[in-house]
Design goal:
Blueprint lengths: L2 H8 L1 E2 L9 E2 L10 E4 L8 E4 H9 L8 E4 L12 E4 L1 H10 L23 H6 L2 H10 L4 H8 L3 H18 L1
Antiparallel strand pairs: 1-2, 3-4, 5-6
Helix pairs in contact: 5-6, 5-7, 6-7
Length: about 170
């Protein structure tokens, strides 16, 4: 057992019931996620890692690049590998919305018809042509990420289309 693994186990509050959360008692970030210094094989591989990510890798396998280590239990301090799952950013956001943990002001949710805070029904939302929706959002100086979510296009398409619409306005003026 290396020093990182010893540190990992020393910072866990493990209850008697194995189905409960294993709470991390070491360093935490501002959101309550555990942080652990991991020494890599090479100096550039060393650094801070999420304790839940370390737990997943210790008990399972490496997390593929670009993937998230998510919590079924919604407890950021939990490092119980049975409470964790690997998913994309979208999987993580969908899980958050399903569990009702989404902030009412989270911009990427504003166009989601399943969001109870959305003022438009899904039929009304679909009735707005994408170009009109994008024009309106761009006029309100909304970011490309929000535009792409609301208009159901990729962020690259949103950037290109908003740039095109801007040039079109300049030509007409």
């Amino acid at each position: 057992m290396d020093n990182t693994e010893k540190t990992f186990w020393a910072n866990i509050e493990k209850p008697d019931n194995t189905g409960d959360c294993w709470n991390w008692k070491g360093n935490q970030d501002s959101n309550g996620y555990g942080k652990l210094y991991v020494k890599g094989e090479f100096p550039y591989q060393s650094g801070m890692k999420g304790a839940h990510r370390y737990s997943w890798e210790l008990h399972n396998d490496a997390i593929p690049d670009g993937m998230f280590c998510c919590h079924h239990c919604d407890n950021p301090q939990c490092v119980n590998p049975h409470h964790l799952f690997i998913g994309t950013h979208q999987d993580n956001m969908t899980d958050m919305v399903k569990k009702g943990r989404a902030n009412k002001k989270t911009p990427w949710m504003l166009g989601n018809a399943n969001n109870k805070n959305n003022k438009k029904s899904s039929k009304e939302s679909k009735a707005i042509p994408k170009a009109d929706l994008m024009r309106r959002l761009r006029a309100e100086r909304k970011a490309a990420g929000l535009i792409s979510w609301r208009a159901d296009v990729t962020q690259s398409q949103a950037v290109l289309l908003t740039a095109y619409l801007k040039r079109l306005r300049e030509v007409k003026a």
